[in-house]
Design a protein that fits this description.
By secondary structure, the protein is of the alpha+beta class. Helix content is about 60%, strand content about 15%. The protein is built from 6 helices and 3 strands. The chain has helices at about 5-20, 25-30, 35-75, 110-120, 120-130, 145-164; strands at about 85-90, 95-105, 140-145. A 3-stranded mixed beta sheet has the order 1-2-3. Helix 1 packs across helix 3 and helix 3 (about 35-75) crosses helix 5.
């Protein structure tokens, strides 16, 4: 077999493994010729490791979200006032960076809130490092989350359709 068919079979197997990492049929592995069977088994082991790592990252994200929400209540920056909530935390696999999505109820002062959060990121990182037992405390990057606004807009459109 030529190199192109090997690569295409590997790509197909990789997509198949990523689509269903737990329910990978063993008959698919044994129906492949020997070189393909080995590459599929290697891909299976990699997805199991990635799945375990993603579970850990998910737990760390939840813990960061919980700690940051409690720390934001005690923040003394006057720009960070009003009702704001942390909707999502995404941490890189190496735990160096954490992207924190923040939803603000008062839309008139969103830029001020984000500037206040950015200026207090060092303090929040230090306090987060004290609360969590991680080798690296991730650098915090705040981003505005407008998914709640989009959801209310879609709900409003659906309600308008029902009225018609």
């Amino acid at each position: 077999m030529n190199q192109l068919s090997y690569l295409s079979r590997t790509v197909i197997a990789r997509q198949y493994v990523r689509g269903t990492p737990l329910a990978f049929p063993s008959s698919f592995v044994y129906s492949l010729p020997k070189p393909y069977e080995l590459s599929v088994q290697v891909l299976l082991e990699q997805t199991k490791e990635n799945q375990m790592a993603s579970n850990r990252i998910g737990r760390i994200n939840e813990e960061i979200q919980r700690e940051l929400s409690s720390l934001l209540r005690n923040l003394k920056d006057p720009r960070v006032q009003g009702l704001l909530s942390i909707t999502l935390v995404e941490t890189t696999p190496d735990l160096r960076f954490a992207k924190v999505y923040v939803s603000v109820l008062d839309k008139s002062d969103v830029t001020g809130v984000l500037k206040g959060l950015k200026s207090s990121a060092g303090y929040l990182r230090r306090e987060l490092g004290r609360a969590l037992t991680l080798r690296y405390t991730p650098e915090i990057v705040f981003q505005l989350d407008d998914s709640i606004d989009k959801g209310t807009h879609i709900l409003k459109l659906l309600n308008d359709l029902e009225k018609k």
